[in-house]
Structures are given as structure tokens and as C-alpha cells.
């Protein structure tokens, strides 16, 4: 034996493990340390009243005096230390109030299994069942100065012949307790002495009463009848048992009803490195500092003003200097809320970065700029916009953006129904920035710039104004739950231009949340599908212009494509020219027999720079003589070197999928399509390099 004597001391009254041992073996529980920290009479007269640490030294001295002391050795152990006073905590055996939870726990488990209570994410149902299946009696009394005092009263009777056992009654007031004691023990109320237990209720017990106690329970108040039970509880996943299960147990037991029908657990918010926020690490982010902004100096002052230990204070201040060298910029409430909701709530911790919140603040700026443009467009016309029902999308771009808005509203409905807020915020951000601002507003600028000298131009401009108004107004309503302050401000500025026939509430908070059924007449799935080709063509055109260093020029381009693709590009022709910044797009179908006569054009010039849109569509840009051939060769070579490894990976993946029968057909088809497009782009680059190298050779021979 390397440590100890082989004898095991058992102190059931001062150790939790020993207490459980005493229950199994019926051992006596002697209390040797009193509540004042001094030794009790059970230790004998020589130790009675001695302080606990002095008594330990006296025991050692007594062993030495009797020559029974063999020595002492240091060994590591865990000691509970009070975080406030620094004192070592001594477990003591005290009388407590307990609640038997077995039956209540069975009802809570059954409610989830029967579907009466839905837990989201669903895998927490297993945690719920495991915890409640192994529940023990709940100690609800606490020896603290604050809290709800336990409504239990100890009864003292005047007749000394009664046994000295403790007598207790309960009551909502001392008068009710006195009447209850008089009936139980058959004495007059005025002859009874009551002493209320000084203990207070466990915080989680008081919190468990919250759903119905705050509404006036046990009285059947109008608020209780109207608002209880509730529909949804949203809380942190670390409170599954501490709070949620106890609310369910107490609500079912005391009211006969579940306090809510659904529980949504959100993830824990951690720092940008994925670490739990703690004072010792110095990575705690105060939401108010993110909202209002704070300097590094003020962050350091707050650490010094706190109760962090000196060693942890240095670590904390160093972490702040590393993470926030320039402090935290002012981001605002809406940006912080939108950033938090942009993370997946269910199942993953949120690693919050200030740069993400700052990006959401930039999105707020984008919203201001969008409204400024919209107000300028609406203010230039004396004709009011039409109502939502009367607004018809006539032009190709109007039909596309209206259909995109319909799809966004549908995504919001589905995301909110599934409690997936990140899909809602992603859809709203994508529509506002990429569909409304980057595409539609850019495409309608040439239309709005036309002189209103014809009936056609006036009608087109009025249609743009109505569509733009409703897109912005409805987007603000969709964003309102996530960004209530900025959306209310912008919505109020937009209301003077609202249709006269529409019944508009005084505030956006009272506006009904948009529904996809309102926009059923704006759903054009073919337009959305076809515009995907336009976006790919625009991407390829911008890439060609960037390769040639064309920042201001608007060159002409050729699109070599299939007849169906040519029809789409012709339908969205003005949008392609505007977004690609080109002077014109010539359409050429390789198979002229299948191509309508209106789409026939001459093939692109030989030696043009080519960009691959997909395996059936290519863009050609003719480069005038005198261009920088060497620079284009270098760019194409770099592009080829980047694509070749990707092509090899796709080919390998395609081979693996072909050998595995379990891979779905649509996955194999998608991989094949990507491989074909990439293979064609690599071949096109090789052909362009060959032509350019021949041009280099000719130029060198001339010189």
C-alpha cells in the first residue's frame, strides 16, 4: 500500500458519497461540525466548540502525544471553495423539503411520446426521456437570504403532554396555516404558536411556476384563461432539465394542463473560436458593447472593475487586445439580432464573430440605400402606385423579380414553420441584395431614364414603380421580426406613396405577415428557371471583360448556344446587355436547321476569346488587334492550371459513382453535367492558347 493505512473513514453527515453508503448499510449519521463551523458535543468535551481547522490540529497533536502518529503525506484532492468568500465549504446534514417526482416525471415523458409536447430539435427527446426516467426526489429548500420563503409553519401546542415530534402545516398566509393547525390538532387557533420555516424555495421551483403564476394562478383570472397554456417556449439547450422539465411537471400537476405545446431549444452562443464565453478567458462579449460600440480601453477598464482574480485578469486583458485591437465597432440592435438568427439554431453552437455582425450592419446600410433609390423613383411621378392585387408584372424582369419575391415568401413560411430561422434570414438577404439590388434595380435604371414621351415608356415606368414599391414594402414586412427598428423607420417613410385604396395600419408591427397566397398571381416558375441561364451568361461576360481589362468599354459579344437557350437570351436581352455591360449580344446556333430564322446570325470571329457557360453554351469576345497577347496567354494558363486538378477530382468521383449502385441518379447526372462543362472549358482554353501562341509567333516574325 503506497498511501494510507487501509482503514476507511465514513462520515455520512459530511460527505454525499458517504451519505448514500449509510443509506445502503443503515449506518448512523453523526454530525460533528455545526452550522457555525465549530465542533459539536458528539466530539467530546475536549473538542466541543473548537473551530474545525483548530480541531484537526488538536487531533494530530493528540495522536503524537499518544505515539500513534505515523506521519503525513500530501496528496491531491478536490475541495469545494466558495467563489465569493474563498472559504472551504463543509457539507452538513440538514433537514430539507423534498418533492416526489416519480409520477410527475412519468406524465412528462408520456406527453412527449404521445405528441402532446413537441421538442425541437427532436433528438433532445431522448435526453428528456433519459433524465426523467432516472429522476430522484427534488430538494426544493435552500438556506439563502433571498427567494420565496417556504409557506410551511412549525406548530407548537400549549399542552406539554404531547410528544416532542415536529409538527408542520402549510398555508398561503399565517392565518390560513393557523386555522389548518387548529383543525388538525383539535385546539383553539389562539393557543397555537407558529414559526415559519426560514428556508426559501429553490430558484428553479419558483421559475417552474412562472407560466401560470404570473397570470394570477391559483385564481382563474382572465389572463390565465386567455394566455394559458401557451404555444411555444424558446430557450437554451442547457435548461432541458433545470427549467423546462420542471415547468412541465409543475404545470401538469397544479393546473392539469401542459404549459406549452412546443419547446424550441436554441444553441449556445460561443466566441468566434468556438470556446465557451467565460471571464477567465476574457472572451465574454457584452451585447450592449456590440450594439453601442466600445473602445479597447473601456473593455480593459471593465475587466479591472470586475471581481476577476489578478491572474485571470491579465489573461482576460491579453485576450481582449488580441481579439479586439481596435475595440468593437457600433453595430446596432438589428444587426446583432439578424446575425444571431443567421446561424443554424438547432444542434450546432453559434460561434459569434463581430465581423459577422458588422456585415449585417452593412446590410442595414444597403437597405437605407435601396429605400433612398425607391423614394427617388416614386417621387418623380404624380401617378399613385397600384394595389398589390392590381399590380401585374408585364415586362420580363418584372415577372422575374415578382416570382422571386413569391419564392422568398414561400421560403420564409416554410422556414418559420420548421423553426429554421437561418433559412429565413438567408432567403431575405439573398432576395434583397442579389435579386432586388444587384439585378432588378440595375436593369430598370435604363427604363426609368427614358423620356416619358410615349405611352409605352410611361406605362413601363409606372409598372416599374408599382413593382418596386411592393417588393420593398413586402420585404420590409418580412424582415420586421428580425430587424424591427430599421424596418419600421423605412416602412414609415414609404407609406406616403402607398395605394390610396389599401387599408394601411399605423405601424409595421400591426401589418399582417406576408403570405404566399397573396402573391399567387406573381408566381412565374419558368421565368425563374430561365433567368438562371442569364445569370451564368452575365458571369461569363464579366469574366471575359475582366480578362481583357475592359473597365469602361462595352464590347459586342457572341453567344453560341442551343435554340432554346437563344430564345431565353432573346427574351431577357436588355437585362443581359445591362448587367454584362456590353453593347450587344449576337446569338448563333451551331445547328442552323433547328434555329428560328429570327435568331440566325453569323458565327463569332475566329480567334475570339471564349468563356464556357455550360456544355451547350459559350460566349465569344473578339479582341481587336494590338491587344496584350502575352497577358491573355498568362491569364489563360493560370486558369487552365486551376481547372485541371478540379477536372481530375470530378472524373475520379464520376468513376466512383458509376461503380456504386446506391448513388442516386440525379447525383450522377449532376456530376456528369459538371464534368462535361469543365472538360469543355479546359478544351476551349487549350484552343485559345493555341491560337494566341500562333499570334505571338506571327507577331515575333513580323518584328
Which descriptors would you attach to this protein?
alpha/beta, 16 strands, 4-stranded mixed β-sheet, 703 residues, 3-stranded parallel β-sheet, elongated, 23 helices
Poorly predicted segments: none
Q: Please give the count of helices.
A: 23
Q: Strand pairing plus helix content: what structural class?
A: alpha/beta
Report the principal-axis shape. Answer: elongated
Q: Give average pLDDT, whole number.
A: 87
Helix content: 40-55%
- Radius of gyration from CA coordinates: 38 Å
What percentage of the residues does DSSP assign to strands (E)? Answer: 5-15%
Number of strands: 16
Largest sheet: 4 strands, mixed
Strand order of the largest sheet: 14-13-16-15
N-to-C terminal Cα separation, in Å? Answer: 96 Å
If you had to describe this structure to a student in words, what would you say it looks like?
The chain has helices at 16-25, 52-65, 102-113, 124-133, 174-185, 203-208, 210-213, 222-227, 240-255, 287-292, 296-305, 310-323, 333-341, 354-379, 396-417, 421-448, 455-479, 484-494, 525-547, 563-571, 573-580, 629-659, 665-702, and strands at residues 98-99, 118-120, 138-139, 141-142, 152-156, 168-170, 193-196, 200-201, 232-236, 262-266, 269-270, 350-351, 556-560, 584-588, 609-614, 617-621. The chain is α/β, with parallel strands linked by helices. It is elongated. The N and C termini lie far apart (96 Å).
Q: Secondary-structure map with pairings?
A:
Blueprint lengths: L15 H10 L26 H14 L32 E2 L2 H12 L4 E3 L3 H10 L4 E2 L1 E2 L9 E5 L11 E3 L3 H12 L7 E4 L3 E2 L1 H6 L1 H4 L8 H6 L4 E5 L3 H16 L6 E5 L2 E2 L16 H6 L3 H10 L4 H14 L9 H9 L8 E2 L2 H26 L16 H22 L3 H28 L6 H25 L4 H11 L30 H23 L8 E5 L2 H9 L1 H8 L3 E5 L20 E6 L2 E5 L7 H31 L5 H38 L1
Parallel strand pairs: 2-10, 9-10, 11-12, 13-14
Antiparallel strand pairs: 1-3, 4-8, 5-6, 5-7, 13-16, 15-16
Helix pairs in contact: 3-4, 3-9, 11-12, 13-14, 14-16, 14-17, 14-18, 15-16, 15-17, 15-19, 16-17, 16-21, 17-18, 19-21, 22-23
Amino acid at each position: 500500500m503506497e498511501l494510507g493505512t487501509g482503514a476507511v473513514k465514513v462520515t455520512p453527515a459530511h460527505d454525499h458519497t458517504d451519505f448514500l453508503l449509510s443509506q445502503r448499510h443503515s449506518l448512523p449519521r453523526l454530525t460533528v461540525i455545526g452550522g457555525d463551523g465549530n465542533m459539536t458535543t458528539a466530539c467530546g468535551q475536549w473538542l466541543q466548540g473548537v473551530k474545525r481547522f483548530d480541531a484537526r490540529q488538536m487531533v494530530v497533536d493528540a495522536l503524537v502525544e499518544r505515539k500513534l502518529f505515523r506521519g503525513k503525506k500530501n496528496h491531491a484532492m478536490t475541495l469545494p471553495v466558495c467563489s465569493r468568500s474563498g472559504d472551504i465549504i463543509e457539507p452538513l446534514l440538514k433537514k430539507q423539503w423534498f418533492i416526489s417526482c416519480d409520477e410527475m416525471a412519468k406524465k412528462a415523458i408520456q406527453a412527449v411520446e404521445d405528441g402532446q409536447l413537441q421538442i425541437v430539435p427532436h433528438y433532445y427527446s431522448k435526453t428528456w426521456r433519459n433524465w426523467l426516467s432516472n429522476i430522484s426526489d427534488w430538494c426544493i429548500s435552500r438556506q439563502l437570504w433571498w427567494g420565496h420563503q417556504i409557506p410551511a409553519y412549525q406548530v407548537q401546542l400549549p399542552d406539554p403532554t404531547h410528544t416532542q415530534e415536529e409538527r408542520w402545516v402549510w398555508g398561503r398566509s399565517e392565518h390560513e396555516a393557523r386555522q389548518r393547525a387548529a383543525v388538525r390538532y383539535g385546539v383553539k387557533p389562539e393557543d397555537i404558536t407558529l414559526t415559519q420555516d426560514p428556508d426559501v424555495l429553490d430558484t428553479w421551483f419558483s421559475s417552474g411556476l412562472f407560466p401560470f403564476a404570473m397570470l394570477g394562478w391559483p385564481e382563474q383570472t382572465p389572463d390565465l384563461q386567455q394566455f394559458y397554456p401557451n404555444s411555444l417556449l424558446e430557450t437554451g439547450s442547457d435548461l432541458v432539465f433545470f427549467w423546462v422539465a420542471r415547468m412541465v411537471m409543475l404545470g401538469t400537476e397544479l393546473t392539469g394542463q401542459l404549459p406549452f405545446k412546443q419547446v424550441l431549444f436554441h444553441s449556445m452562443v460561443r466566441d468566434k473560436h468556438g470556446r465557451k464565453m467565460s471571464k477567465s478567458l476574457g472572451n465574454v462579449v457584452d451585447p450592449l458593447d456590440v450594439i453601442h460600440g466600445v473602445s479597447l480601453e473601456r473593455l480593459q477598464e471593465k475587466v479591472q472593475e470586475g471581481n476577476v482574480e489578478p491572474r485571470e485578469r491579465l489573461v482576460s486583458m491579453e485576450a481582449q487586445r488580441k481579439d479586439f485591437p481596435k475595440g468593437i465597432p457600433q453595430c446596432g440592435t438589428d444587426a446583432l439580432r439578424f446575425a444571431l438568427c443567421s446561424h443554424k439554431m438547432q444542434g450546432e453552437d453559434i460561434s459569434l464573430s463581430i465581423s459577422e455582425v458588422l456585415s449585417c450592419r452593412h446590410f442595414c446600410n444597403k437597405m437605407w440605400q435601396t429605400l433612398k433609390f425607391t423614394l427617388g423613383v416614386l417621387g418623380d411621378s404624380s401617378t399613385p402606385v397600384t394595389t398589390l392585387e392590381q399590380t401585374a408584372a408585364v415586362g420580363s424582369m418584372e415577372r422575374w423579380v415578382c416570382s422571386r419575391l413569391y419564392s422568398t415568401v414561400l421560403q420564409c413560411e416554410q422556414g418559420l414553420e420548421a423553426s429554421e430561422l437561418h433559412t429565413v434570414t438567408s432567403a431575405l438577404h439573398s432576395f434583397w441584395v442579389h435579386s432586388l439590388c444587384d439585378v432588378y434595380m440595375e436593369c430598370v435604371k435604363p427604363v426609368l431614364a427614358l423620356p416619358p414621351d410615349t405611352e409605352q415608356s410611361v406605362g413601363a415606368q409606372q409598372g416599374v414603380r408599382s413593382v418596386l414599391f411592393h417588393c420593398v414594402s413586402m420585404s420590409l414586412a418580412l424582415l420586421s421580426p428580425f430587424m424591427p427598428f430599421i424596418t419600421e423607420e423605412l416602412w414609415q417613410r414609404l407609406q406616403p406613396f402607398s395605394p390610396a385604396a389599401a387599408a394601411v395600419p399605423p405601424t409595421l408591427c400591426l401589418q399582417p405577415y406576408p403570405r404566399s397566397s397573396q402573391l399567387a398571381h406573381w408566381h412565374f416558375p419558368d421565368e425563374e428557371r430561365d433567368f438562371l441561364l442569364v445569370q451564368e451568361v452575365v458571369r461569363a461576360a464579366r469574366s471575359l471583360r475582366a480578362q481583357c481589362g475592359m473597365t469602361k468599354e462595352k464590347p459586342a459579344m457572341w453567344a453560341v448556344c442551343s435554340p432554346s437557350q437563344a430564345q431565353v437570351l432573346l427574351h431577357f436581352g436588355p437585362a443581359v446587355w445591362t448587367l454584362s455591360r456590353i453593347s450587344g449580344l449576337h446569338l448563333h446556333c451551331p445547328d442552323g436547321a433547328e434555329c428560328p430564322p429570327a435568331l440566325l446570325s453569323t458565327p463569332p470571329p475566329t480567334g475570339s476569346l471564349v468563356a464556357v457557360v455550360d456544355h451547350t453554351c459559350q460566349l465569344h469576345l473578339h479582341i481587336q488587334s494590338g491587344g496584350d497577347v502575352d497577358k491573355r496567354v498568362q491569364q489563360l494558363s493560370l486558369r487552365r492550371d486551376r481547372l485541371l486538378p478540379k477536372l481530375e477530382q470530378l472524373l475520379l468521383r464520376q468513376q466512383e459513382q458509376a461503380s456504386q449502385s446506391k448513388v442516386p441518379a440525379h447525383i450522377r447526372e449532376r456530376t456528369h453535367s459538371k464534368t462535361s462543362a469543365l472538360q469543355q472549358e479546359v478544351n476551349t482554353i487549350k484552343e485559345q492558347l493555341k491560337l494566341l501562341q500562333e499570334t505571338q509567333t506571327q507577331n515575333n516574325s513580323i518584328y
